[in-house]
Amino acid sequence: MSLNDRKDAFEKKYAHDQELMFKVEARTAKLFGLWVAGEIGLTGADAETYAKTVVTANLEEAGFNDVKRKVAPDLQAKGKDISDHVLDRKLEEYFEEAKNQLTAG
Question: Per its UniProt record, what Pfam families does this chain match (predicted)?
Fold first, then answer.
């Protein structure tokens, strides 16, 4: 294998890994959004629509702080007192679930 072949292989792997991480983060945000939707009393199409807004919010910055900022006022408006610790734990749980879903195939 030549040096150029190795370089190309590393670049392809890097691009694949970045694409996979993007998909995992988007799936995490959707699963988390569906959970929050349930917490604030949304079901069916309304829950799906809400989850999409959470996915969109996740595009603002790296990590999930943007997602937490999006859902916090919605939870507060419904009288749900859910700590940052619980939100972080749920995000970690859904991150692992999303990773498993996307790498299982």
Answer: ATPaseInh_sub_z
